[in-house]
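Protein in question quoted for reference:
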Amino acid sequence: MKELLMGISLLLLVFTAGCSKQQAADVPASPAADVAYSVTDDAGRTLHFEHKPQRIVSLTYGTDEILTDLVDIKRIMAYSRWAGDSEISFITKEQAYTVGRKVPENTEAVYALQPDLVVASTATSSDLVRSLEGLGVPVYIARSPHNYKEMCDKIRGIAAAVGEKQQGELMVQKMDTHLQQLQKRLRQIPSSERRVAVAFNFTSAMGRRGDLLDSMLTMAHVINGAAIVADENKHGIPAISKEQVVRINPDIFMLPTWNYNNKQDVQGYAYAVMNDPAYRAVKAVRNKQIKFVSDKYRYVASQHIVDAIENIAHAVYPEIF
């Protein structure tokens, strides 16, 4: 019965699409919008466009941010559900208000907006992607980067999809310039004086070797304590233990800030870590080097990666800023 009702709902959406398409006329076409082109997304799928998309729906906070700097905001029909949440998103409340919609990852909700492009990620439900494509909606799947180069590639790919390659290159050039300026400052730190940091989520230490946080810590000239024990856990141990953290003896603890489900106590978690008997002898606790680094930096998924690297460096080496 649930499947039948879903099918009926989708059919109704198809039959009423004409009304929504009339609304699309309110969105002005950009210059050269009638030039056809093709792109390949980060899942290796080829998408064809007769013109630049004018009704774009974003399903992730990272693509929200990238699209906002790539296209006229009038071309964005909806952001993801986290847009405007300052602890995970760089989208301002004003930008979220201007777009006016935050869409759930739901076929009916997305299709009702009559998008001519949906930008998703490799973490987006494959069922949702298939459903939208079955209704004729183009879906571009963007990667989840593990390093700076992959983030630049993600930006270039999305820029190509929306017909704004030049703007994508300008974004990457701006990132490169910012990174070069930051690295010039960070090179003041001798290798022998680099500090060790361990980042935590609300359950354990995080930032395994090869993931994006590990890469950002390295670019911030910080030694990632979690990567030190990566080889010990290569046989599938799910979490970094307290004993391993104690053995690393990091200079800095980096704690979470995002109360994503309204059930997390940020200050209470910090208190528990500071007063955990297991960590009493760890340098980070002894020297009261407990740092809050906003989760929008720790989980960055957009052009703000250099801002994230700088924020991490500032937390660990405040004396050089």
In short: Residues 101 and 120 are 16 Å apart (CA to CA).
